[in-house]
Amino acid sequence: TFAPDGTLYAYRIPTSVDTKPGPAALVKVDTATGAQVVVGDLPVMFNGGMTFDAAGNLWLYSFNPTDPSTSGCSKNFCLWKVNPANADATLVGGQDTRFVGGLAATCTEVQAGTQVATGPAPISRLDRVDTATADLFKIVDLKGVGGTTGLDVNQTSGLDYDATGVLWGVGLSALTGRTPLLLSAVFRVDPATGVTATATLTLDNSDFLGQVFGLAVAGLACAAPAAVELQPLFTG
After folding, report:
1. Helix, strand, or coil here: 69?
2. pLDDT per residue over 56-95, tens digit each?
3. Dihedral of the CA atoms 131, 135, 137, 141 (nearest 10)?
4. Which residue has better confidence, 197 or 107?
5. pTM reported for the whole predicted model
6. Contacts by 67-74 with C-beta closer than 8 Å and gap 24+?
């Protein structure tokens, strides 16, 4: 996610996830070289979404793979407010019902690309995040063009707005009309209807079968609130 000053921030997790998980790290990334500078340790996590809001606050909504005594969070998915200067993370809250795969911010709110955490027919949707409680509120279900045709979004793993206000995501999509096959995809979302225009990712002219985690776009520029000048009224 890009900070208001244009610095690209990311998180990285330990390369081995088949042993006891360790803390993640907040890093700053040089967009010219890809070089990373570690800011500090984050809570233990596997994946999730991260974004700066319009006020410059950094939010991380992540999957918690450990117990509360280690992470301080008793939920499966936890919202943290992160200090970008030193990576100190303050727990806001969490929930157990939805997988959070990407965060993005408008000029007025933080949003999440989510999926039902369990069940035979996962449903992806765009949610509003209450950054005071970590509660999620449905904005719209995500679906392919026409609702049943094209490529439906199966799982969001990155989300961000561009400078014109268009919402983009990356994740997994399921090809319809054939044996289900999960493919990495990029998609554009209409936040009013949930309709997604989706294209699968390719590598060397073949379907890219890996998964892309994270998406950052140098996006919306939000105007500062207008100053209000108060004129005192004296009586008597």
Report:
1. helix
2. 999 999 988 876 666 678 899 999 999 999 999 999 999 9
3. 100
4. 107
5. 0.86
6. 70/44, 71/43, 71/44, 71/45, 72/43, 73/43
